TrEMBL record:
<protein>
    <submittedName>
        <fullName>Uncharacterized protein</fullName>
    </submittedName>
</protein>
Length: 59
């Protein structure tokens, strides 16, 4: 039962990450929720990581 709830919550996090509810959740709050959840559960390998763009120094 607990495993089912965690999977359901993870899908909710993914939904909020890609399409947050209008006016209810902001994009940053959805991302913070995911980071807290996956760091506490050690399931960071479950989601595909987005490649970080290297910042080029501007001259």
């Amino acid at each position: 039962m607990y495993n089912y709830l965690s999977i359901l919550f993870s899908f909710l996090c993914i939904f909020l990450y890609f399409r947050p509810l209008e006016g209810y959740f902001e994009y940053n709050s959805g991302r913070a929720l995911i980071v807290i959840f996956y760091k506490s559960k050690n399931l960071s390998g479950f989601l595909p990581r987005r490649p970080h763009q290297k910042r080029r120094p501007e001259f």
